[in-house]
Amino acid sequence: xxxxxFAEFRFDTKALRLEGPDGEVEIRAKTLxxxxxxxxxxxxxVPRDELMEKLWPEVTVTASSLTQCISELRQAxxxxxxxxxxxxxxxxxxxxxxxxxxxxxTEHLEPLxxxxxxxxxxxxxxxxxxxxxxxLLFVITMAAAASWWALRQTEIRPxxxxxxxxxxxxxEEEPRSFGERVREAVVDDLSxxxxxxxxxxxxxxxxxxxxxxxxxxxxxxHDFELSAxxxxxxTGETLWGWTWVVPKDGKTVSSTTAEIAARVRLAIxxxxxxx
Length: 275
Prior knowledge:
The chain is α+β, with helices and mostly antiparallel strands. It has helices spanning 29-40, 48-55, 63-77, 116-126, 130-153, 173-190, 250-274, and strands at residues 3-6, 9-12, 17-20, 23-24, 87-90, 94-97, 102-103, 159-166, 196-197, 211-220, 223-232, 238-247.
């Protein structure tokens, strides 16, 4: 997934490393795998049987193994069963990660200017390099022209982009409706971007390359929590992610929908230009 944050915690899902206000939290890797799965599916209550199957796929364990992991996770997070901030339990439904999750943005930073002493050194040597620069400029211009012509002769294949709304069948209607609204806005926004193709649902299995945008929405009291994650379709590598907390009033929902679509488009354009 990515490096992500919730409350006062930082969680590296690749290294399975959890850090709190006092540094790294000592906790078993299996319990952090549980945390990862709950975060990935935080738009719903995950049944106990599903968690046991995913965490111990080739091992027969009893329900007490999962109970121990849940207890250990709550203890590590300082959570309470009666007033949960992170892990919520619902009888016959399972467990749900209830905290708002923020993804660290992965856009490229603008380069910083060099220090003054470096600029001074460059200034003293620039005069004797001018004639060489003039020659190099001519060579570079000719090479750039040749490269441009070669690119014009090469067929540029569009990048497939699949936009998915991840929601379980038992999700509440309100967040599902908002998530679908955002998904449609993202599709509409991307359809006008040159170099992209958005395959219809019936053709998606044929496109194992390209990019995938996952839209995930759940309800948090008076707010929606919506996350958008950009991945490589073939490898599953996370390229970019962002989380919005949106008040449920109509005006904010409408304006934020357009903002989310624009941010997703910018992330995709930057990635395709970089590659």
